[in-house]
Specification:
It is globular, with a radius of gyration of 16 Å. 45% of the residues lie in helices and 21% in strands. With 146 residues, the chain is α/β, with parallel strands linked by helices. A 5-stranded parallel β-sheet has the order 3-2-1-4-5, sandwiched between helices.
């Protein structure tokens, strides 16, 4: 059935719902879950400020992608430890990050939440689920999260 599932997260409640549902599916199918989060690097000024305030033993955690690392670790916790999980932090656009990882790992299914797909906005601005559904290299499951 599905050997590799990809799901994206930005740490929001609706993304948590999508991760939870993707993990349930991975658990049922015996699949590996690939969790993706896109990020923009933390500003250098903020990094310098945090480095001054951080204890010496925690300075290693201060880096341009510290926020995405915590988002991914939280998603891993939501998925549970009874399934195989890989985490992917990618700089840039969320839809591109999910599509790139899906292609790289040979995903069988991408799971995304429906947030942002309603009304005229989807036609004017585009949305992550809308873009993924049009450009995915595999099947896409859009979960109702709102």
């Amino acid at each position: 059935m599905f050997k590799k599932l990809v799901v994206g997260t930005d740490g929001s409640q609706t993304a948590d719902d999508a991760v939870r549902r993707a993990a349930e599916l991975a658990r049922t199918a015996g699949s590996k879950l690939e969790i993706v989060s896109a990020y923009e690097p933390v500003a250098p000024a903020r990094l310098r400020e945090e480095a001054v305030e951080a204890p010496k033993d925690l300075e290693w955690a201060i880096n341009p992608r510290e926020d995405v690392d915590s988002t991914l670790e939280r998603a891993r916790e939501i998925a549970g430890d009874d399934i195989e999980v890989a985490l992917h932090a990618r700089q840039g656009d969320p839809a591109d990050a999910i599509l790139d990882v899906a292609e790289e790992v040979g995903a069988d299914l991408i799971v995304v939440g429906n947030k942002g797909m309603t009304g005229a906005r989807r036609f004017l601005l585009g949305s992550v689920p809308n873009r993924i559904s049009h450009h995915a290299p595999c099947a896409v499951l859009i979960i109702r999260t709102t």
